[in-house]
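Researcher: Last one for today. Full complex below.
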Amino acid sequence: GENVEQHPSTLSVQEGDSAVIKCTYSDSASNYFPWYKQELGKRPQLIIDIRSNVGEKKDQRIAVTLNKTAKHFSLHITETQPEDSAVYFCAADLNTGFQKLVFGTGTRLLVSP
Amino acid sequence: SAVISQKPSRDICQRGTSLTIQCQVDSQVTMMFWYRQQPGQSLTLIATANQGSEATYESGFVIDKFPISRPNLTFSTLTVSNMSPEDSSIYLCSVAGQGAISGYTFGSGTRLTVV
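Model: Here's the assembly. Have a good evening.
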């Protein structure tokens, strides 16, 4: 089955710096890769996603890149702000036709003012 | 995206008892998914609930422990049976986006503490 590894587990940056979180997956048949942000005590929220036919996608300060050959994808946050502090999860679909996602282990991002 | 109402939001239960968690979606969806998130951990899929058929459980999860109902296209329940302290977790229901595969929307979660 699919296995998703995520690094780093924690990331501390200064406000205004960039943050990069990386994930690798094992199933070459996966073709959908979302990223979720989970603030303390709240539900995960989808922040950006990418499909296998696209190499990069941007939405304001966040971007995701995908390297299908290497089976890894990354989340990039530029000009970080304290409100970006949260736990971020990557995920990959199981490509079973049943829309199941496997989640990475999470990255706790702390942005200091 | 779909709006999911999940309840209860939290509960403290005695070991050996059962708790049923409910999720109501504001639109009809084919698949509903139940996840467990242990403290400080990632999300682990428990089962997939398809209306009109038995739920499909992931490795490590069994129907006797986590029975699921899916009576219609907008509602599902997850029961945590014969609870032990190890069942203390956040339980979340979710639905996939409409059309082609897309991101999940999650319910607000149920924080369960077993004492």
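Chain A has no helices and eleven strands. The mean pLDDT of chain A is 93.
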